Amino acid sequence: MLTLPWMKPKIKSRIFIIDTSAILSGKPINLDNAIMISTSSVYNELKPGGRDYQTLQFLIEKGLSMNTPSQYSIDKIKTISNKTGDIDRLSVADMDVLALALDINTAGDKEVVILTDDYSIQNVAHVLNIKFENISQQGITKRFIWSRRCRGCGKNFKENLKVCPICGSPTKNIVSNRENIRKRGRDNR
Ligand SMILES: [Zn+2]
Prior knowledge:
Order of helices and strands: EHEHHEHHEHEEEE
Bound molecules: zinc ion
Strand order of the largest sheet: 3-2-1-4-5
Shape: elongated
Number of helices: 6
Strand content: 15-25%
């Protein structure tokens, strides 16, 4: 059986999940004494040969390992992100990152932190009580509430409708509200 990093005995308690935006930021990720993991789908989003691929290889040399989330958690992320309206902004790799964090959180004894600059990942993570930290931005203090607006008649819908049921025009995502969130990602450095 594969031994995953967080299953080893006698471990540091924090696990950082590196997403694609963290790698694309090109910022040095310096996580001494921390476990770093990512997903195979993040790995597959990066083309061999480029700078970002080099960053990834560097992180792998530093101990970054690739993991696959459970289907149960992937399904849960889909459900939650559909409710928050973030689902259209999440790639397969983004979903996997969130699902992996959920798996580890559910397992219990480890603290997981997603390293990401992606607001939709942060939004969904917040809803699920998963910690996150920014690589290159200041961190969100507001949680976006998304809804959809018809491009034709202008009516707003809470549901994630691609086509307006009234006039048949396509809809677009809008921020319908913002609410304050605690700076969950930054309080625990
Ligand atoms: Zn309409």
